[in-house]
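TODO from last week: model 2-keto-3-deoxy-galactonokinase.
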Amino acid sequence: MKKREYFISCDWGTSNFRLRVVENSSLKILAEHKTDQGIKSLYEKYLTQTVKDQTTYFAEYLASEISNLPKIHRKHIVVAAGMASANIGLYEMDYADFPLNGNGDNLKWKHLKLPNNLELLLISGAKTNSEMMRGEEIQAVGLNDQLTPYQKGVLILPGTHSKHLTYRNSQYLDLKNFMTGELFEVLSQKSILSNSILKENTIINENVFIEGVKLGLKGLLSERLFSVRARHILDHKPKEDNYYFLSGLLIGDEIKYLANTVDTIFLVAPDPVFSLYKIALEQIIIKEKLILLDGHYLEKALLIGQQKILKNYDQ
């Protein structure tokens, strides 16, 4: 088995791009470089030209950004997860099928030799019969060691599109997607409710948030959405309160199916969403069944997941 001292972690999402030089033995980050050139914006730029094919265009961008890393670390293998393997990314790959093994050995990966002697290990997304994800599968693989002692449960990864993964004995068996984050953005910024919502206070208004959660848990999302505006116009509630009321309503709706579960729930997220989901889940999940892992664990999970895939490739 090939032993590598270092690798370059590439986290290439829809909106952002990040490179990190990682010491393989300790996962210590030795250097980091970020841009706002996510897959979506770079693909739009690619479409404005006709000289280069898609893979070449993206590969050249990747190589140019690697040149911002320390010179002694520019030749390591790049391990890329996220939207880089999407149809608008560097190289389209098919999704791996669920169930997903906790060590990642049944994910799909592709080794590419790119211009400038760039060596890239590209990782696929994962799918069930009706759901799919790209990027979170690597986090799930990286989190497996945290979940193993509990044997079974549901892993919740909040985000623009929240992921709920059913976990049993070091396997992820099923996936649910919830568009909670995107719905909040659309409703709070682009709907008639936008004039009744304002975020200025970073301190969570817990009482108002829980009020929204409880309505969401009852399945009243659609029925009570317009009440966000009514609270402002008729009841003269502050717009800042409505920010948390709407958040609670949407998150409560997302987690309502877990109200009677006996499974352990694993929440893994950075703040501020970590705190919001924690409060919401505490309304229905007893303390002993709620395992809380903050943003530090999520950051580490990506590196652990990429390390596992690299190890599988090198064997």
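Done. Residues 6-134 form a domain with the Nucleotidyltransferase; domain 5 fold (CATH 3.30.420.300).
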